[in-house]
Amino acid sequence: MGKIVTRTLAGAGALVLAVTLSGTASVAGSHPKVTVPTLTGWASLPAGTFVPGSEPSGALATGDLHGFTAPFADQPVQGFSGIVNNHDGTFDVLSDNGYGNQANSADFLLRIQRLAPAFATSTVDVVGGLNLTDPDKRVSWRLTREDRVLTGADFDVESIVKATDGTYWIGDEFGPYLLHFDRAGRLLTAPIPLDGVVAPETAARTGVPATTTSSKGFEGLASSPSGRYIYGLLEGTVAGDTPGQLRLNEFDTRRQRYTGKRYRYQLESTANAIGDAVAVDDDRFLIIERDGGQGETAKVKRLYLADKRDRDHDGLLDKTLLVDLMNLANPRKLGGFGATFTFPFQTIEDVVILDDTHLAVLNDNNFPFSSGRTPGRADNNEWITIELPHRLHADKDLLR
User: In this protein, which residues make up the domain named Phytase-like (predicted)?
Assistant: First the structure.
């Protein structure tokens, strides 16, 4: 059986928060000190990390569990698919929907984990979290649990932004839906569908024909600097669209409806997918684009800067390669790796701007299935920080 590690931070307090960003040596607006994208911090949360005293999970998980034995006694802290910076040394990180599909994830509780990376010790501490629930019966169809705690059989949550009032907007892939939760994780409104886009899970429930394939809903969710608009980026192409083109839809949070403005992002290959999208300012986004490889087969793991102003008038977001995650300079040999660092994970689904020259990137370890770092071993959740050779000139409201 794989080693199970339970990590929490009860009472660790200010010490971890004080060192959490050590290694980045930066403040907002600082000038770059490197000539190429460079690794400045590395930390890792062990694959076998569980929420203590929670509930059993993984009863239907099958396949290569890489030494772990299911079911697990508690809920795993795993599969990070979205991240929010709390600007106090902690981050709210969205766990994925469970064990790969709707049918085997009914005992996986949807949860926002609160984490604190400590780069001085190369560790990540779990400092809290909250389960997502629907106590006010905003969801009109039957949920998995009578107590209305949401599970991976109800929604596939993949992206997150935090509003100025502390509420959360979360992007789902089973609808796809936008979900609005309060600060305690309670659903505030009925799930908001995207007109003309129907995932197979919704098609099976409603009888409306599917227009996209499974797990191709809102993989990226970005907030405008003011918080008025959020932008949902689909992971997959909608039926009838040009192959490899992904829709980016604008949503008005004040009116709680889509504005009708739609943009298009072109993948480098139809075999690729996006992993996350976050705003840099009112017009630009950071977008993770990746292939499906891991370990030796991982080739395309990239961060692009995408601009919706479409200056070449081709109808697509303008793209500029910002970071090749398979080719990061590592002069300090952080994490025990060599002078060139690679991030060879199948799914990389989290990027967050730390300041105008530094980013953090996290992988989704698909616990316990992915094995990109060491063949035959379940991947940990790795957390890296990167210094850029040029300033982003990000909107200051996004850096607070």
Answer: 75-367
In a 3-state reduction of DSSP, which class is residue 342?
coil
Structure tokens that stand for 177 in this block: 């839906």
Burial grade of 209 (CB within 10 A; 0-12, 13-18, 19 or more): exposed
- pLDDT tens, position by position, 15-51: 333 334 444 433 334 556 899 999 999 999 999 999 9
CATH topology assigned to domain 14-399: Tachylectin-2; Chain A (2.115.10)
Domain ranges for the chain, please list them. 14-399
Of 399, 340, 359, 364, the closest CA to residue 274 belongs to: 364
* Sequence-ordered alpha helix ranges (H) in the chain: 14-19, 200-206
Pair 198, 209: CB distance under 8 Å: yes
Nearest alpha carbon to residue 347 among 189, 230, 249, 219: 219
SS (H, E, C) 70-113: CCECCEECCCEEEEEECCCCCEEEEECCCCCCHHHCCCCECEEE
Q: Which of 226, 107, 253, 100 is nearest to 173 (CA)?
A: 100
Residue 302 exposed, middle or buried by CB count within 10 Å (0-12, 13-18, 19+) = buried
DSSP 8-state class, residue 394: -
What is the spatial distance between Cα 133 and Cα 222, in angstroms, rounded to a whole number? 23
* Residue 335: strand, helix, or coil: helix
Q: Residue 104 to residues 57, 70, 134, 154: CA-CA distances in angstroms?
A: 10, 12, 21, 11
Cis before 368? omega within 30: yes
According to DSSP, the residues that pair with 320 across neighbouring strands are: 305
Q: Model confidence over 304-351: pLDDT tens digits?
A: 999 999 999 999 999 999 999 999 999 999 999 999 999 999 999 999
Give the closest residue to 366 by CA, choosing from 58, 3, 9, 22. Answer: 58
CA distance 15 to 29: 25
Q: Which amino acid type is present at position 307?
A: D
Backbone angles phi and psi of 161, in degrees to 5: -135, 155
Q: Which residues contact 303 (CB under 8 A, 6 or more apart)?
A: 286, 287, 288, 289, 321, 322, 323, 325, 351, 359, 361
pTM of the model: 0.92
